[in-house]
Amino acid sequence: MKRSTELNLIKRVLSHVAEKSTDMADATSSLPVTRYYDPERFEAEQKLIFGRLPRAIGHISQIPETGDFFTLDAGDAPVLIVRTEGGGVNAFLNVCRHRGARLEWDAGGCGRKRFTCKYHGWVYNPDGALIGIPGSEGFPELNREIHGLTRLPVQIRHGFVWIQPDPKGELDMADYLGDLDAELGGFDLDTHVQFSPRRFSKKINWKLVIDTFLEGYHVRTAHKDTIAPMFFDNIGLTDRFEPHQRIIFPKLTISDLADQPEETWSLRQHANILYVLFPNTMILVQPDHMGVFHGYTDGVDGVVVDACALVPHAPATDKATNYWQKNVDILFNAVDEDFALAESVQAGVKTQANEHLTFGRMEKGLGWFHQSIDQIVDEKGR
Ligand code: FES
Ligand SMILES: [Fe+2]
Q: Given the DSSP bridges, would you call strands 160-163 and 154-157 parallel, antiparallel or unpaired?
């Protein structure tokens, strides 16, 4: 983050603190409840958003050595990611080119030199080339050159592995992240390592994973027994980098900065900085580490969440491990509170209690997020 941006954000927060105000939209907005459970709408989002837009699916620290791999299939295309010699990555559809069985069944592994289909035993190397066919006399005309694994465009940027889910699509993450690209570059995400990864399923539409994080209005009540005492009630900044957003949740300690020289000001020491990278990744920057969440669709009313912390170095002592674990537990306890409420929303929208949900002016991030989705579904879907 540029120093001028950091100072500017701190000044905006201090001004809100002095005025007891927060960033507000011009007006309230509303959203039809069907957005969370209508199967046609879900199909359109699945095709136009999850089928076409770049997204992060993991961190490079998961696969540090050549041949390390992981697989992912949560509602959309099954993917196989392999670390290559020279430090790059390959991304493939995890589908055998013979008769289409799932190729790799393990969630991850190390130093793999070949991937063998368990149906009829076709063998592929980490570059996706078809290198073995049992009973090859049965396929005299088969051109192996064009029966390698199907590649997906893939890029490592800011330490994350990003894929373009459309094999024929383009991937340019600097372009896709826009102004946030340079800003994210300042956090050394590429040298951080994953800590305490966890995967969990929730009975919610994928959008509720994001909705949950887009406002601080709920913190005082929903997190009253956990994190609320650290934060200002309903004071925050919400900025749009269409289709992404940056949200600042200031902590009470930020008030102290008003009496200190600007040269000493640090935003992340006194606020959580949330990057919402459309459509389904969130990076929560905390004073000395990050929390990361990716939500994957699992039907219209289900989601699989991959969550982890990113820490500057792999902990080398029990003391360091305990320190990070304590931090991670605080975050995940709060997130458990969020997702329990989100599941109640998913149940609630299917009742006839509401035709629309209402987003208050201070919930402007929700208005923007759903606007971004509408723009894609309504405009590109025609
Ligand atoms: S489907 Fe993979 S070898 Fe037949
Ligand atoms: Fe929350």
A: antiparallel
